[in-house]
């Protein structure tokens, strides 16, 4: 079998790893449309810079027009239409003759955010950032301190405590600043947006094109627990200046080069297993969707309030009789004995960005749980998502029956068909289990595969080609990669009750994992509704003069068993539990009590 075809197939698998709160710089083919949107009629003649901005908007317009899978759903759900949104953006460009590049970046920010899609991401090239060493959490319309980095903010300087209320921020009500920040975030799930705005209150990054980034001293008004008195503390922003000067282009732009020529990676590149592993490590380092610009920068995994933290803020649920060695196993897990003498397992899944080694480590934990516990608690709160195959690998260990997965409508174009044809050529060389093991291996990203999987993949690509040949640009709903059911692991399967913890900062894979388990009636879910990012990501980076490093767009639209989409709707818990102020003050003992009550009821 030629290395060319094998490498092509492996590359395709990597590029289709989905549900990423990480950026996937996928290959993109851009075809100019003869019906390019026209510039609105205005009394003045656009400047050279404005013309470049309008051309850039045309490029973004066509990208979304022919590559954005949830477009129909967005129009039905929210009245969003790319033609109208581009016109609004152009009108804003033309309304100000001396529009700066920074101001144009904010127009693009609003355009992307207007999709109400957490998978529509972007980043601008910027070194500017500012932060304060604490975080806040919204509760019942107020904002409370949820974390303080005492290594940077000792009690002698800031005697406030977790659970104290932030009342004023920069000499005005904190609610006003939160409301302003919400307008600069994707207009999606209200609870998710509020939580993201609260995280952004003390962490600002220029790459997300905020209206401004603060620096210097700031006064924080704090109402201590049990008191009505407001204490004012002066802190100083940890500030890093902008070192990219876009104003030189604004002053001197006279050239006529086209700023919208698409750049793309070579169609094929030589890869081997080591490069696959390296790419997986890079994914862990690049949490680069839109929301990550607000809450993933300088990610501190030791901060339990942070998205993707190794350990969450859920306290110990009981007396531990066994605990995982996190120096050898990437999962924090333990077994505890409750007041009814039941043995319960707990395991934290911080994200879905792992490989076969991680699935093997999870398998070891599940095997121990299956022998020693009466039920388990899976903690996936604040989960940014990751790879679909890795997610399937974890799920295969949680049931003794196969589990139905969402079907997806996918954007389709000549590139997909070309890729499909070459992949089918590769699969033609696989004729039995032995040749599959030799050419692909026994798993993809941790999900075990067999020869029947290969047959499913063949059907998947044939379906894609058939849909394209019918003139479609969006496929009918079909199992992604031919996997309509997750096959139970052959030798390790957890068969006892499971309580799954979710919240409004679960994205993408953090939506799909609970959706699959809930649709198959395998778990009881406790928490709040997930964010609702329902598809996989395509990404694009191209030469431009506006500092737009990349933008991403959703390439598929997934639907659950009841035919409702995951996009925007997310996953609702079976048992709702919202964090309280008392939780913050008591190290989440109320939350822990609810978790124990719920798992006991299942037992």
**CA(first)-CA(last) distance:** 52 Å
| Backbone shape | flat
The CATH class designation of the domain at 314-402 and 489-543 and 557-602 is Alpha Beta
Which regions have little confidence, pLDDT < 50, spanning 5+ residues?
14-43, 255-300
**What is the overall pLDDT average?**
86
Helix content percent band: 25-40%
Oligomer: single chain
User: Which structural class do you get from the secondary structure elements?
Assistant: alpha+beta
Let me know the number of strands. 25
Please sum up the structure shown:
The protein has 603 residues and is an alpha+beta fold. Helix content is 34%, strand content 17%.
Structure notes:
It contains 18 helices and 25 strands. Helix 1 (3-15) packs across helix 13 (414-427) and helix 2 (48-67) packs antiparallel against helix 4. A seven-stranded mixed sheet has the order 10-11-12-13-20-21-25, with helices on both faces. The chain has a three-stranded antiparallel sheet with strand order 1-23-22, covered by helices on one side. Strands 6-2-9 form a three-stranded antiparallel sheet. Helix 16 links the parallel strand 20 (498-502) and strand 21. By secondary structure, the protein is α+β, with helices and mostly antiparallel strands. Residues 14-43 and 255-300 have low confidence and may be disordered. Among the domains are: 129-240, Roll (Pdz3 Domain); 314-402 and 489-543 and 557-602, 2-enoyl-CoA Hydratase, Chain A, domain 1; 407-486, no CATH class.
